[in-house]
Amino acid sequence: MRGTAVRKSELMSSHPYIVHTKGVCGGRARIRDSRIPVSVIGESVRGGESRDNLLFLYSHIEPAAIDDAIGYYLDHREEVDGEIKANSLEAVLAETGAVLGVDGVIRFPKHAR
Description:
By secondary structure, the chain is α+β, with helices and mostly antiparallel strands. The protein has helices at about 40-45, 50-55, 65-75, 75-85, 90-95; strands at about 10, 15-20, 30, 100, 105.
């Protein structure tokens, strides 16, 4: 673990490479020793990304950690899919009142002073 102390409460016993840390990635499940949320891996899996391509894209992460993130996603699909939905462009636009223009530029509403 590259000399990093991990609190026991961070470790997910059935998923040793997955941690939840208050203040890191919003406390969401992430790959240990990284800032890669499981939701990023889950969204890739949902989109049909292959394991081999994930290993290529995240070559700095141990293959076992990628496998564990995939497993965590499959075991906690409802939780992770909820995170993916909450962080979608549509959800963020709705929450902020912003609009995506046909030119691809996000415009935020002007606030009255």
